[in-house]
Design goal:
The chain has 217 residues and is of the alpha/beta class. It has 6 helices and 9 strands. β6, α6 and β7 form a beta-alpha-beta unit.
Length: 217
């Protein structure tokens, strides 16, 4: 574990030096919850590599730089009410929880990943992340509205339920584009009077967002 920790610390330092991790809060969160805690044992030696890695059910855990970029774009602050769509391994939710220091709600459609994420979070000592099985394209109405919504899969468009569940002044980070390979990462904001504004960040590649308001399975 000491070797893994050393490799991970060097990765975090390189993300800081490269200007990917810009805030001290995100740097501390990355050090608190290393990616090697959220992958299967056979991939732990590669967790520091800045590339996606396989997780169960044919899905992936995002590259560290991509996770850092989305967290920085979300501009998370202590006390915010946050929804994550696409739990995956649970790593991103753990980082969000460390940044907001409050309960985080995350929705995953694949039962196998719900169990995988819950085990990872428990092993990492994360207590303020709540993982639910369901269609994340519908959001999670019981805890809405949200200050921030982060979507970790590529959608054909911005799901209307997510916009509806965003607070005025809230921010949504979501990849939008084709089902396979390339999408554009969007920052969607809702003004105080309910106007929706969209800003492109750049090209990204995510697994497809499957659901009623996403791609069909």
């Amino acid at each position: 574990m000491e070797k893994l920790d050393g490799l991970w610390r060097r990765r975090v330092a390189s993300l800081v030096e490269g200007g990917i991790i810009r805030s001290e809060a995100v740097r501390r969160a990355f050090l608190r919850y290393p990616r090697y805690l959220f992958v299967e044992k056979r991939y732990r030696d590669y967790a520091h590599v800045d590339e996606p890695l396989p997780i169960p059910a044919g899905q992936t855990i995002s590259a560290p730089h991509m996770v850092a970029i989305m967290l920085e774009l979300a501009e998370l602050e202590r006390g915010m009410n946050v929804l994550e769509v696409g739990t995956g391994s649970g790593w991103n939710a753990a980082l969000i929880a460390e940044l907001v220091k409050s309960d985080v709600y995350t929705v995953e459609r694949i039962p196998e990943l719900v169990g995988f994420a819950r085990r990872n979070l428990e092993r990492a000592g994360v207590e303020n992340v709540h993982v639910f099985l369901g269609d994340g394209t519908k959001g999670f109405p019981p805890k809405a509205p949200y200050d921030r919504i982060i979507v970790t899969a590529g959608a054909p468009g911005v799901p209307e339920p997510l916009i509806e569940q965003l607070k005025p002044g809230g921010r949504l980070v979501i990849p939008v584009g084709s089902r396979h390979l390339w999408q554009e990462l969007y920052i969607v904001t809702k003004t105080g009077d309910g106007e929706i504004r969209k800003k492109r960040w750049g090209e990204v590649a995510f697994v497809p967002l499957i659901g009623e308001h996403g791609w069909r399975a």
